[in-house]
Automatic annotation (TrEMBL):
InterPro entries: Flavodoxin/NO_synth (IPR008254), Flavodoxin_CS (IPR001226), Flavoprotein-like_sf (IPR029039). One of its GO terms (molecular function) is oxidoreductase activity, acting on NAD(P)H. SUPFAM superfamilies: Flavoproteins. Residues 27-173 form the Flavodoxin-like domain. It comes from Lacticaseibacillus saniviri JCM 17471 = DSM 24301. It comes from the Bacteria. This is Flavodoxin-like domain-containing protein.
Amino acid sequence: MRTCVEVDFKVYTGFVDQKGGITMQDTLVVYFSASGTTKRAAETLAKLLGADIAPLQPVEAYSQQYDQIVARGEQEKDQDSRPALEPLSVNLKQYRTIYVGFPTWWSQPPQVIDTFFETVHLADKLIVPFTTSMTSTINDSWATLQQLATTAQASLQPGLTANSTAAIREFIQ
Ligand SMILES: Cc1cc2nc3c(=O)[nH]c(=O)nc-3n(C[C@H](O)[C@H](O)[C@H](O)COP(=O)(O)O)c2cc1C
């Protein structure tokens, strides 16, 4: 049974175990989504895992127009920029495993994923990456993710291409 508990004036989510004790939820799903597909995949994943979920929100929100997303994404890629992110809505301390989701852009994670790895304290966390895409797979982004995780002193775990509920179910089984 999912529940909440207050510790040091902070509310954490968790589960009531069979003995009635509180087990803290230690898995979080974070995601960036420009047009909603990765958000839906993240929600499915979080639901199936019983995990908490938090969006990665750029300070300057992306347009909902496809052409404008492409134009901005291309400029950010060419400039190797680090678009600023709003502070996360959760405290990462409680979590050991963090699923990190993003749309594949030009066979790579969008630049906001670089921002996430470089500005959030991820040392010793287990990072499970997932992506949505037209055809690309999580393998295309692997070298970049490995570099980002190494610099962040996080441990990159096998990830998934989350283009269907079936693929998500299969991964977490
Ligand atoms: C700027 C841009 C670049 C893209 N590059 C790729 C790509 O290299 N490979 C691919 O399979 N899909 C690519 N796509 C498709 C997206 O990865 C796919 O539609 C994704 O599910 C969108 O997720 P979102 O709705 O969460 O933003 C690209 C889309 C955009 C807007």
